[in-house]
Each structure stands twice: as C-alpha cells, then as structure tokens.
C-alpha cells in the first residue's frame, strides 16, 4: 500500500554523523512513496551556527537524491501513486535563524524548500512555540513571512506553535498543515491539537500528520498500535478522516510505538489498521491523503 510520511529528522542525524532510521533501505522496505525531510538546527545554537547547519543539511539532502535512484525530488512535478521509489520533499522546521530576511527565504525556496514552520517550541522573532503562554503569538515579522509564504506557494506548518500563533496562522495563511502532532482530546499535551483546531484544518483543506511518539500519544514512554488506533478512531469520528496521515517524527523522537521502529515496519501497521478500519480510511491515512494534499498544492504553481 502506498505510504507517505509528513515529517522526519533524518537530515539532522546525517549532519551529526549519526545513522538515521529513515534511509533508502528502510523507505524501500516500508513502501514509502513520499517522505518529507525537515531541515532543523538546534535552537540553543547561535544564529550563525543554525544557518550553517541548515546549509549543511540542504547540501546533504541534494547529495542523497543525486546518489540514489530510489529517491526523487522535483518540486514542479505531480506525485504519482507509485512506491517503487520515494518522492522527497524538503521543509524547514523553525525559522528563527531567517527572521523576515526575504532574501534568505527566497534562497531556501530556490534550493527546494516547499514547507516551513515559523518556530520550534520556543518563542522567537516570528512566533511563539508550544512551550509559550498564549499571550504571545505571531510578531509583525512573522506576519510578513506568512504573506511571503502565501505569495510563493509555501505551505505553513503549524506543528510546535502555541494556540495563539496557530489561530493567527489559520486566519492569515493560504495553505496550512500540522506535520507531526496528536489529538489533545486523548492526551492534554501542548504539542497536541484540540478538536476545534482539527475542525479549522478540515475547513481549511489542510493536513494533520500523526506522530509515533508515545509521550504525545498516551503520556508514557511506551505505546502500541492500539494506542495509535485510538487517535485515528477519534479523528475519524469528528470528520477528519480525509485530512489525517502519518507524521512519524522518526529520528526526532527518543521512543516510538512498539513494533514500529523505522519505516520498514509500516506493513505491520497497515495490516493492523486494515483489520480494524475500512480500507479507504487506511489508504488515506497511510499515504493518499498527504499525496493528494501535496498535489493540490503543486497545481497552484
């Protein structure tokens, strides 16, 4: 079954000379036809160090694509329902190192970035992250960047934003996703989203990627397929079945769902889901919803 993942941190792992869970071999074994690779630089680093890390990860991304026949990247083509290879998307997770420098934003776009979030968990010069009080939201610079994203058909990722920033993005941005999150109805965690936020994303024709991080799923260090299934069941019950998908956060989380250690384990998850949900729901969840969302975005070019 065609599989797509809206978020992983493999590029940071490679940049730090570590072996990523998301790699050519595991993507192929898992039948992954579409993978978003996030550019991320630790926010405790200096602005210069963050900028250099992002440059390094961009170079590594294009090197990986060039060296592998199984990894394709072309922001100007439609994504086919074909998992004999993996279409690779490039995104930016946290943009404090760019601020509202539009020359730098244009440079990232020219290097293939198609989606970006304004901040990580912290408050920066653009927005407030999920660890911040809701009295903080988008800054004037952040609103300027949202307008630039609209003008350049860049998807705005609201993962890691606090609620105040989220609602401002919903009001201002044309194309919105939450690339990796879970539902707050089942676990009240600031990185999870409320049913009201889910409804806003449905109305916006957005996308929600579900993580495999137990701490966001059930608040512990251990979760299994049934815990993940409850996330899916709840979101389907409130009308979100057409906009939910996978947002694994592989290579960015310290633990994952039991039996789902890397992308090669996706067939086991799919088989478990097929035994409990309608096939069309499972097809949408594991890949088709994200693929269709991305093609709707690319048709605007």
Walk me through the structure.
The chain has 301 residues and is of the alpha/beta class. It has a single domain (3-298), classed as TIM Barrel (Alpha-Beta Barrel). The protein contains eleven helices and nine strands. Strands 1, 2, 3, 4, 5, 6, 7, 8 and 9 form a nine-stranded parallel β-sheet that branches. The longest helix is centred in the N-terminal third of the chain and has 21 residues, at 47-67. It is globular. The mean pLDDT is 97. GO terms for molecular function: metallodipeptidase activity. This is Membrane dipeptidase. It holds the Pfam family Peptidase_M19. It comes from Salibacterium salarium.
Poorly predicted spans: none
Structural class call reads: alpha/beta
Q: What is the CA–CA distance across the termini?
A: 28 Å
CATH homology-level superfamily: Metal-dependent hydrolases
Q: Would you tell me the overall average pLDDT? A: 97
- Integer-rounded radius of gyration: 18 Å
Which CATH class?
Alpha Beta
Q: Give the amount of beta strand, in percent.
A: 5-15%
SSE map:
Layout: E1 3-5, H1 10-15, H2 24-29, E2 32-39, H3 47-67, E3 71-72, E4 86-92, H4 102-110, E5 113-117, H5 140-151, E6 155-157, H6 163-172, E7 176-181, H7 195-203, E8 207-210, H8 214-217, H9 225-237, E9 244-246, H10 266-274, H11 279-298
Parallel strand pairs: 1-2, 2-4, 3-4, 4-5, 5-6, 6-7, 7-8, 8-9
Summarize this, please?
This is Membrane dipeptidase. The protein has eleven helices and nine strands.
Provide keyphrases for this structure.
301 residues, alpha/beta, TIM Barrel, 9-stranded parallel β-sheet, 11 helices, 9 strands, metallodipeptidase activity, Metal_Hydrolase, Pept_M19, Membrane dipeptidase
């Amino acid at each position: 079954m065609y599989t797509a993942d809206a978020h992983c941190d493999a590029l940071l792992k490679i940049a730090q000379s570590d072996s990523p869970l998301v790699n050519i071999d595991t993507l192929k074994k898992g039948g992954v036809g579409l993978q978003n690779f996030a550019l991320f630089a630790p926010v405790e680093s200096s602005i210069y160090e963050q900028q250099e890390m992002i440059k390094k990860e961009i170079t590594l991304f294009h090197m990986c694509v060039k060296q592998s026949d199984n990894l394709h990247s072309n922001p100007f083509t439609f994504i086919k329902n074909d998992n004999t290879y993996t279409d690779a998307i490039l995104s930016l997770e946290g943009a404090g190192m760019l601020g509202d420098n539009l020359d730098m934003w244009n440079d990232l776009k020219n290097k293939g970035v198609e989606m970006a979030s304004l901040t990580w968990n912290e408050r920066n010069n653009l927005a407030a992250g999920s660890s911040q009080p809701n009295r903080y939201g988008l800054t004037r610079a952040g609103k300027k960047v949202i307008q630039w994203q609209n003008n350049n058909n860049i998807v705005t990722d609201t993962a890691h934003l606090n609620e105040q920033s989220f609602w401002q993005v919903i009001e201002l941005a044309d194309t919105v996703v939450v690339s990796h999150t879970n539902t707050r109805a089942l676990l009240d965690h600031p990185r999870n989203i409320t049913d009201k936020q889910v409804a806003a994303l449905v109305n916006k024709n957005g996308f929600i990627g579900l993580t495999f991080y137990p701490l966001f799923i059930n608040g512990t260090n251990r979760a299994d397929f049934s815990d993940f299934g409850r996330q899916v069941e709840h979101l389907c019950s409130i009308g979100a079945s057409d906009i939910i998908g996978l947002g694994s956060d592989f290579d960015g989380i310290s633990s994952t769902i039991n039996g789902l250690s890397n992308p090669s384990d996706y067939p086991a998850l799919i088989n478990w889901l097929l035994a409990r949900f309608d096939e069309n729901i499972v097809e949408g969840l594991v890949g088709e919803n994200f693929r269709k969302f991305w093609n709707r975005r690319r048709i605007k070019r």
